[in-house]
Specification:
By secondary structure, the protein is of the alpha+beta class. The chain is built from 12 helices and 6 strands. It has 3 domains: 48 residues, Helicase, Ruva Protein, domain 3 (Orthogonal Bundle), CATH 1.10.8; 149 residues, Elongation factor Ts, dimerisation domain (Tetrahydropterin Synthase, Chain A), CATH 3.30.479.20; 71 residues, GTP Cyclohydrolase I, Chain A, domain 1, CATH 1.10.286. The strands form 2 sheets. A 3-stranded antiparallel beta sheet has the order 1-2-3. Strands 4-5-6 form a 3-stranded antiparallel beta sheet, covered by helices on one side.
Length: 288
């Protein structure tokens, strides 16, 4: 019988067993989840039910660029406790996950689980081995891979690896450009912009924000025409706080990120522009 990927994933979440083992178990049990769990337990391929029910809310975030700076990867791997997250074993798992992303040139976790690590084991086998070693539920939560044809990448891993970022900047790779990229990657971690510039903010979001600001002003007793003006001003403030290039530069107060980009562009002789940014924080909802 045909076994759907969703059913395989559901069984894997319940048991912690590998994808291939889950698919075989489902085929042997005609798609019955409970029978498949029993099959895996008998084969010794499933982790204990108690462990599979635990929540893996700790872990590490790793961002990395290659030597040429034309490729970049970022991953989140999870475990149950901060104690395990700080261990050498788990640290090696996170680094292995990053290398797998580069090797596969993909951020699809399902594809990556079957990818081979440097030692010849699949990433799923490395996960299973780590689970057995540390005695906790271990998960490969998410990943992303990027390549650039007209620019370069920089990364920033905050102390403790609970949050990290990547940024792609178009233009020539120069010392000044890389220094700028490193600073902006740090900016992304510190200031949490939601988009690079205004074009990334939907009209629906702005209308919603404006309506909220207007209602707040009216509730404070302001006339409607004044409330409109207040709402418009607050929308401008929203842009300044949430668009990367409009934020105040963290390393030099009084200057916007856009002003710093122009300054460095003039100094290096290469026109720089932010093309891509990504920020991972431990435990956040995927897509947040």
């Amino acid at each position: 019988m045909d076994i759907s990927l969703d059913l395989v994933k559901k069984l894997r979440e319940k048991t912690g067993a590998g994808i291939a083992d889950c698919k075989k178990a489902l085929m042997e049990s005609d798609g019955d989840i409970e029978k498949a769990i029993e099959y895996l337990r008998k084969k010794g391929a499933a982790t204990s039910q108690k462990r599979s029910d635990r929540v893996a809310k700790e872990g590490l975030i790793y961002a990395r660029v290659n030597e040429a700076r034309n490729e970049a990867a970022i991953v989140e791997v999870n475990c149950e406790t901060d104690f395990v997250a700080k261990s050498d074993t788990f640290n090696e798992l996170a680094k292995t996950a990053v290398e797998a992303v580069f090797a596969a040139k993909s951020g699809d976790v399902n594809d990556l689980l079957s990818a081979k690590a440097a030692n010849g084991s699949t990433i799923q086998q490395v996960l299973d081995g780590t689970t057995a070693s540390v005695g906790e539920k271990v998960e490969f939560k998410r990943a992303a891979f990027f390549s650039s044809a007209d620019g370069f990448f920089c990364d920033y891993n905050h102390l403790g690896n609970k949050v990290a970022s990547l940024i792609e900047i178009t233009g020539k790779v120069t010392d000044e450009g890389v220094s700028l990229g490193n600073d902006l990657a740090m900016q992304i971690v510190a200031m949490k912009p939601i988009t690079i510039d205004r074009s990334g903010v939907s009209a629906e979001m702005i209308e919603k924000e404006k309506e909220i600001y207007k209602v707040q002003a009216i509730n404070e007793g302001k006339p409607e025409n004044i409330a409109d003006r207040i709402a418009t001003n607050k929308v401008e403030k929203f842009y300044e706080e949430n668009c990367l290039v409009e934020q105040e530069f963290v390393k030099e107060s009084g200057k916007t990120v856009n002003e710093v980009i122009k300054q460095v562009s003039a100094l290096s002789g290469s026109e720089y522009k932010v093309k891509t940014m990504v920020r991972y924080q431990l435990g956040e909802t995927i897509g947040a």
